[in-house]
């Protein structure tokens, strides 16, 4: 029998970016918050002098242990879903701060088109432009409504960047200047400009200078050490939850954190929740944490899984295309072009979000009238820094072993540049999340099942973006260019991005969405579900700034609900 704990005014399930923002905003307003984190405590001391590529980048020290909990995957409903036995396509974070600790720091905002994508697509091209099997929908809010919350996230993390006419409009300047322009990025930007495009230095949470945010938390200046993605920053120069929002919440005295607390279900009487059940992963004890308000901020997969396990909301049914929990799972459509040069570039130095960025082929910034896809994606040359174990570029036809490989690798290590596209992912009626009927985790709870494959929309978008990148690489003067425009079927084994979205999507209609534009559940008014699970599709930009902005808006709504309970307008 579960031990009942003292009641809290709010409980946050999962303490990463979304959970940290919610906790800090509520606690600053005097609301008592309990944060439940299933992983261990992490502090900045854990990452001092930890530039260990084998431990973090290869063996995934900061990631979820799939021997205890994983998910099952299939491309379509005719396949048998099998468990992921090792991390591949995406890297699920664990411990305090979650994926916000090991992210690269890319900070572009979603475009105004994203929030009203169905309406704007129909207005410009007509309803026939949207395929019947694409459940495209507006988000129930406009970019204009969201802009102040994007600005709030920028102020919290100190985003470094510069404005650009093709990106989302801003009401404020970036808090810190853009990062340095390296020779490789300069070449990319010059070539893009020659082609009539509008390149700029991408927005970054690896800060160009030391910055103290409005809450009094200081982020240091980036040292361009190349250890961002998959690593915690030992310089405290990459904004993450454990140096910004989590300490802010703790300093209020209104936030209590409990680690190793794995929430298994939400208590629900058909109308409201009164708390959550969790197990202490160190002792095996079961507890019930009562609360007036419950906020799920436990990453895309687990947000959907907890709702399905707790039987809150109607599960999505691909046959009838009804139900909302698990609906519109989306990913990101990534493709790249590699160029081999005579000249050398110092690619050893870098940072997670040191990037030349082009938005001319993103969103609806270009005419789709004669194109066989919607949306687009950011095109970038990223200088994240090369590390010796995972970086071995050689031209096609080179042997993958022996003296020939070693000689070619040594020659091309600093003579190879890559351009990548961060393609948008549109929803499809057959891409969704549900509970697996066969497999369970170490606690006996059903695993989440992912049914997902690339579509013709995705393949056409990828081919188009590859052509555009090839044009830029040719203008840059590469001797040899490697491009593969055919992405085929989705393969969960190789890493692609940790940009998973959907499953608990937002909108203006409870028949087609799970939460309103404050991320309040339609079916349970004192339950809020916050994170990229709310995205009704995935954009051509990285998701974290939009997660941050939605978290600030949700916090605003939760405070309104605390003062005056009921459905939020």
Automatic annotation (TrEMBL):
Signal peptide: none
Pfam family for this entry, one: GMC_oxred_C
GO MF, one example: oxidoreductase activity, acting on CH-OH group of donors
UniProt-annotated stretches for the region Disordered: 158-179
Protein keywords: FAD, Flavoprotein, Oxidoreductase
UniProt record similarity statement: Belongs to the GMC oxidoreductase family.
Protein name: GMC family oxidoreductase
Originating species: Salicibibacter cibarius
Organism placement in taxonomy: Bacteria, Bacillati, Bacillota, Bacilli, Bacillales
């Amino acid at each position: 029998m579960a031990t009942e704990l003292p009641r809290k005014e709010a409980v946050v399930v999962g303490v990463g970016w979304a959970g940290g923002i919610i906790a800090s905003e509520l606690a600053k307003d005097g609301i008592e918050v309990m944060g439940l984190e299933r992983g261990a405590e992490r502090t900045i001391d854990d990452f001092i002098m930890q530039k260990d590529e084998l431990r973090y980048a290869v063996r995934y020290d900061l990631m979820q242990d799939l021997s205890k909990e994983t998910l099952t995957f299939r491309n379509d409903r005719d396949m048998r879903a099998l468990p992921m036995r090792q991390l591949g396509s995406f890297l699920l974070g664990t411990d305090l701060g979650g994926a916000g600790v090991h992210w690269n720091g890319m900070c572009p905002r979603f475009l105004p088109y994203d929030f009203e994508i169905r309406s704007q697509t129909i207005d410009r091209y007509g309803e026939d432009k949207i395929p019947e099997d694409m459940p495209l929908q507006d988000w129930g809010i406009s970019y204009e409504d969201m802009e102040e919350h994007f600005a709030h996230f920028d102020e919290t993390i100190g985003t470094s960047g510069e404005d650009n006419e093709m990106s989302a409009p801003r009401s404020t300047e970036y808090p810190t200047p853009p990062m340095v322009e390296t020779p490789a990025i300069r070449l990319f930007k010059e070539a893009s400009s020659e082609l009539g495009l509008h390149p700029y230095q991408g927005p970054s949470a690896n800060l160009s200078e030391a910055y103290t945010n409005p809450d009094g938390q200081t982020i240091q200046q980036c040292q361009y050490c190349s250890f961002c993605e998959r690593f915690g920053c030992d310089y405290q120069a990459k904004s993450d939850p454990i140096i910004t929002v989590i300490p802010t919440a703790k300093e209020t005295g209104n936030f209590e954190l409990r680690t190793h607390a794995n929430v298994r279900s939400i208590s629900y009487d058909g109308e409201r929740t009164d708390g959550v059940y969790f197990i202490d992963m160190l002792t095996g004890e079961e507890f019930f944490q009562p609360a007036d308000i419950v906020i799920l901020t436990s990453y895309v997969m687990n947000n959907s899984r907890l709702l399905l396990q707790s039987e809150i909301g109607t599960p999505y049914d691909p046959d009838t295309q009804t139900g909302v929990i698990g609906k519109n799972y989306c990913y990101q459509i990534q493709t790249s072009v590699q160029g081999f040069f005579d000249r050398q570039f110092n690619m050893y130095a870098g940072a997670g979000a040191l990037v030349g960025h082009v938005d001319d082929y993103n969103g609806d910034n270009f005419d789709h009238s004669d194109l066989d896809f919607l949306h687009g994606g950011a095109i970038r040359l990223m200088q994240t820094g090369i590390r010796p174990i995972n970086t071995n570029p050689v031209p096609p036809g080179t042997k993958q072993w022996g003296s020939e490989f070693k000689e070619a690798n040594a020659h091309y290590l600093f003579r190879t540049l890559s351009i990548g596209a961060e393609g948008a992912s549109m929803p499809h009626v057959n891409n969704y999340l549900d509970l697996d009927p066969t497999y369970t985790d170490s606690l006996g709870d059903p695993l989440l099942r992912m049914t997902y494959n690339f579509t013709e929309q995705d393949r056409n978008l990828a081919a188009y973006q590859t052509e555009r990148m090839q044009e830029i690489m040719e203008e840059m003067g590469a001797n040899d260019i490697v491009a593969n425009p055919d992405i085929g079927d989705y393969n969960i084994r190789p890493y692609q991005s940790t940009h998973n979205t959907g499953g608990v999507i937002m909108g203006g209609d409870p028949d087609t969405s799970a939460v309103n534009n404050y991320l309040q559940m339609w079916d349970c008014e004192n339950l809020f579900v916050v994170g990229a699970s709310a995205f009704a599709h995935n954009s051509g930009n990285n998701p974290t700034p939009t997660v941050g902005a939605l978290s600030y808006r949700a916090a605003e709504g939760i405070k309104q609900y605390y003062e005056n309970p009921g459905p939020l307008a």
